Amino acid sequence: MKRFLIVLCLCILLFSCSTQKSAVKESNNSNTEQEQMEYGVETFDAKFKNWYEYFKNPAKNRSQAYYENWNRQYVPAWNAKCANPPVGWHFDPVVGYKTNEDYGFELNHELFYYFMYVENVLNIEIIQGGPTVKHP
After folding, report:
1. Residue 96: strand, helix, or coil
2. How would residue 132 be classed by pLDDT, with cut points 50, 70 and 90?
3. In angstroms, rounded to a whole number, what is the distance separating the alpha carbons of residues 16 and 40?
4. What is the pLDDT of residues 30-53, one digit of tens each?
5. pLDDT digits (tens, 9 = 90+) for 93-110
6. What does the pLDDT read at residue 37?
7. Residue ranges of the domains in the chain?
8. Which long-range contacts (CB under 8 A, 24 or more apart) does 114-121 make?
9. CB 28 within 8 A of CB 3
10. Hey, is 113 helix, strand or coil?
């Protein structure tokens, strides 16, 4: 039993130390009156969550259209790199972002900042000439 617990702990530790990954998670939540879709950005990088909290400054926010515009550029580039990963690309999941879907401000904001985190903090280019973020 002790060996099983040790192996389980090691597996959990290895999983938590694995490379960073991101995906837009879609889940259906049925409501008795109507069906609603709930969306969220799911990352496996604890450092991103801390970094993102630092940048959640409402005074510096831009419009939802601004974030959607950049996400429409970043998502295809991200997915293309996932499909044919260049050297140094350690991200597996593709981002399920539909350009005709209204994901709301929060999701677009967080997804945009995840791309900024990958480019500006991890120094992994997704697209050329993208925006940069500076500390508030």
Report:
1. coil
2. confident
3. 20
4. 443 334 567 888 877 889 999 999
5. 889 999 899 999 999 999
6. 61
7. 19-121
8. 114/22, 114/41, 114/43, 114/48, 114/52, 115/70, 115/71, 115/74, 115/78, 116/55, 117/45, 117/48, 117/51, 117/52, 118/20, 118/22, 118/91, 121/47, 121/51
9. no
10. helix
Strands of the chain (E only): list them.
22-30, 35-43
**Quick one: DSSP state of residue 84?**
S
H or E, element range at 21: none
Residue with tokens 């996400």: 71
Contacts of 58 (CB under 8 A, 6+ apart): none
